[in-house]
Amino acid sequence: MGAVSRNVNRLVMIAGLAFGTMALAGCDSAEERLAKHVASGEELVQDGALAKATVEFRNALAIDANSVAAHSGMAEVYEAQRNYPAMIAHLNKIVEIDPVNVGALVKLGQMMLLGGQLDEALANADSAIAAEPKNVDALVLKAGISLRLGNTDTALDFAQQAIALDPANPTAHAVLIGERLQAEDIERALAIANDITERAPQDMGVALVKLQVLEKRGDAEEVGAYLQQLVERFPDQVSLRSALSRWYAERGQDAEAEAQLRAIAEANPDDSDAALRVAQFILAKQGDEAARAELERLVAEKDEKTPYQVALAQIDYEGGEQEAAKTRLAGVIQDAEDAGNSADANSVRLMLARFLLRENARDEAKALVKTVLEGDAANADALALRAALRYDDEDYSNALLDIRAALASAPNNPQLLLLSARTHLKTGSTDIAGENFAAAMQAANYAPDITMEYVKFLRLDNRDDAVLTVLTQAVRAQPGNEKLLNALAAEQLRVGDWAAADETAKQLAQINSESSIRVRAATLSGRERYDESLALLDSLSKEPGQSDGALAAMVQVYFKAGKIDEAMDFLGGVLAENPANAQALMLRAALNISEKKTAAAEADYKAALAAAPTVAPPYLALARLYLREGREDEAVAMLKEGVEATDDPSGLMLFLGGYYESKQRVDDAIAQYRALFEARPDSLVAANNLASLLVEYKADDEAAKAEAAKIAGSLRGVSVPAFQDTYGWVQYQLGNYEEALRYLVPAADALSDNPFVRYHAGLAYAALGDGAAARPHLEAALATPDFAFADEAKAALATLDANQ
C-alpha cells in the first residue's frame, strides 16, 4: 500500500495496528515458525499480495489461535479487501485476547463510528484512553464521536488534547472544522482547513476535508478550481477525476467532462466499468449513434468483449430494436459458452430474461432462469429473479426459499432484502418484514425509494413514532436528497415541530427554493403568523412557473386565517391569467363549498374537469357534491366515467365500491373491489374491502371463502384495526378460533362503536366457550339500530343462555 493510498484513509482509520513483538532468541520451533509466518505475511501485505498473505497468517493461527500479530495481519488484509465484517471479527478477537490493545480498540471504535454505532464506538474510545491516556488516535476518536453525538464541548476538549500532543494531526483539526461547520462558521472552518492543507499538502484526507468546506461555502467556481488542483496533485485518484467530471458536466463543459472520464479509463485499461462510464456519458450527451460508435470501437479493441456487447444490446432494446437486442445477447451467450465462460453466459441469460419479462414473455424468461440454476444452483441473481417471478405468481413460500438462498451469498443486497420484506408482508410476518425493510434501507444507504417504502410500512403498522427517526437518519445519510428532505419536513410539520422544520427548510433552500419557502410558510402558519406566511407565499406566487402545490398552500393559509374573500380574489387573479388552470378552479370550488355556494362550486368543478379530463380529482369532487345533494345517479355516472377516462382510477374505484357497500349493493361492491384488487394487488385497502365482503356476505360459498382467505393473507400481522377485523373474521370462518381472537380482540377494542367488529369478536369468544366474554360484544352489536346480522347475534346469545 503506497503512501498516498494510506493517506486516503487517514481521517477515518489509524495508521496501523499494534503488533505483538516476539523475542525470537531462545524460541522453540513452533514459536520460530509462528514468527516466520507472521513476518512473511506482513511483507506480502506491503507488496499487495493479499491472498498469499492470508495463507501465511492462517498458518500462523494454526500454530497459535491467540496470536495477536496474526489476527492483526488478518484484520489488515480484510481491511484492504473492504471485507469489514471479517476485519471486525479479528479485531474483536484481539481485544478478547488483549483487552488493553489500544490499536485494536481504536480501529474497532472507528469502524463503529463509520457504521453509526455511536454508543459502541464511544465505549471502545473510552477503553483505549483508559489504557493509554495520551494516545492521539484514541483522543481523536473520542473527539469525533462526541461531535457526532452533539457533545460539542467534549469534542473540542479532546481534539485540543490531541493537537497538543501532535500539532499537525489532520484528523484532530478535522474535528475542529466539523464543529465550525455545525456552527455555520464557514470562514473559520476554511481557515483551519487551509492551515492543515499547508501542513500536509500530500494528505488526501486533508484535501477532501478542505473540499467539503469549499462545497459548504457554496462558491462553485472555487470548488472547481480546487478540484483541478487536486487532480494534478493526485492524478491516480479516480474519485477526484469523477468529481471534476461532474463539475464540468454541470456547467455544460461536456468535452472537459468526457476527458476526465477517458483519463480514468485509460489509466485502468482492464476496468470495463470505467470504459462503459465514458460510453454512458456519450449516450447522455450525444445520443445513441455516438455511444454505439464508442462501444463498437471497444468491441474491436478489447479482448474481453462481453460488457460492451451487452451495452450495445441495451441501446438496441431501449431504442426500439428489441429483436436485434435479443439476437445480439443470444450471440454473446453462445460466444461465452464456446469460450467455456459459463459465468458470463449465465449473466447475459439473466439480462435476456429481464428483457423478456418487459415483454411479458414469462415462460421464456422462466426457462432461461431454469437453465442458469441447473448449471449454478447457488447463483444469487438467478435465485433473486426466480423469487421475483414466484412473488408475482403469489407463490410466496417458494419465493422465500429462493430469497433465503440468494441472501446466503448476497446478505447485503438491498433489492433482495426489499423483496424479502414485501414477501413476508404478504404472508403476514410483519415483524420480519419490518426488519427486512430496515435492512434494505441501510444496505442501500437510505436510498429514497426504499426509505419511503419503509416509511409507508411503518405508518401502516401504526408506528408513526418511528417515521421521524427514520427520515432524520435518511437525510443525515443523503443530505442533498430533495425527496427525503421534503418527506422529513412534512413529518416535522405534521407533529408540529416548527423549529426542526425551519432547519430542514434551510437545507432545502440549497436545492429547491420553492419547496423551502413552502415549508417556511407552513411553519409560520402553524405558529398562526398568517400574514408572514402569506407574504412568503405571495413572493413565491409571483415567480414564473409556480407549482400547484404553492397555489394550494397559499389558499390554505388564507382559509386558516379566515380570509375567504382575499383567497377568492387571489384565485380570481390566477384564473384571469389562465381560465383553464384546473388547480385554481378546484381550489375555488372548495372555497365555494365552504361558503355553501353549491352551484358556483359545481360550475368550477366542471370547468376543472374540462381542463383536466384524465385526472381523478374533478370526477371525485363532483361525485361527492352530487351525493351531498342527493343526486345519486349522477354521482355514480360521474364515478364510472372517471374510472374509464383517468390515468389512475384507483381512488375512484375505491370510492365507488364504498358507495355500493353503503347501499347494501354487495355484489356490485365486490365486483368493484375485485377489479381494483386486480389492478392494484399491492393495495391493502382493496384486499381488506374485498376479503371483508366475501367472508361477511358469501360465507356459505366455499369458493368465495377460499378467495377471501387467500386475499386476507396479506393483512396478517398489520396493526390496522379494520384489517385485523377482516383477517380475524376470515380465520373464524375457517374454524381457526384462537387465531381469530388474536386479531378480533384488539380490533374490537379500537373500533368499539362498530357493531360488525363487536359481533365478530362475540362469535369468536362464543365458539371457544367463553360466554362471559362473548356476551358484551354481542349485546353491543344489537344495540345498533337495524344491525344487518341482528338475528344471528340474537341466536348466539340464546345459545349462550341455553348453555349456562
Automatic annotation (TrEMBL):
UniProt KW keywords: Repeat, Signal, TPR repeat
Pfam families according to UniProt: TPR_16, TPR_19
InterPro entries: CellSynth/LPSAsmb/PSIAsmb, TPR-like_helical_dom_sf, TPR_rpt
Keyword Acetylation applies: no
Signal peptide: 1-25
Ranges for the TPR repeats: 102-135, 136-169
Record PANTHER family: LIPOPOLYSACCHARIDE ASSEMBLY PROTEIN B, TPR REPEAT-CONTAINING PROTEIN PA4667
Descriptive protein name: Tetratricopeptide repeat protein
Organism: Pikeienuella piscinae
